[in-house]
């Protein structure tokens, strides 16, 4: 089903009417998350079709459709357990992506930590990597804090 038919479905079944010019907004802010979560596939009939094509269509993942059809039956719990075991959850996917973007910092001989991406941590990395090497020759790093972990690094013997 394409975005426009979905918007019509939302109107008929949920009383939520979207203006025709919001098709791209609905795709980006709603359907995109379903695709990321692995519960919807894009253009199963023609995978080379661009996602933002007016002819783009979306389909619920067949295995998930089978699972949803048994909802409310005695098979549901086992089916759900099987589905979750075989599918990367969105939470796990996003956690993995966050982990991939973490900033590695060499803090002591043989010791590297990673900081959460963004914010002041990019500056911290540059200070430790470049400023300290040039201006604190022989200096020793004592502490680095992170928004994820206040005591990301603390050299206690100091």
Helix content: 40-55%
Number of helices: 6
Mean pLDDT, as a whole number? 86
Q: Can you summarize the main beta sheet? A: 2 strands, antiparallel
Would you count the extended β strands for me? Answer: 6
**Structural class assignment:** alpha+beta
Helix/strand order: HHEEHHHEEHEE
Described by the principal axes of the CA atoms, the overall outline is elongated
Q: Give the strand order of the largest sheet, numbering strands 1, 2, ... along the chain.
A: 1-2
The CATH architecture of the largest domain can be named as: Orthogonal Bundle
Distance between the ends: 63 Å
What Rg is obtained from the alpha carbons, in whole angstroms?
Answer: 24 Å
Task: List low-confidence stretches.
Answer: none
Strand content: 5-15%
Output the CATH homologous superfamily of the largest domain: BsuBI/PstI restriction endonuclease, N-terminal domain
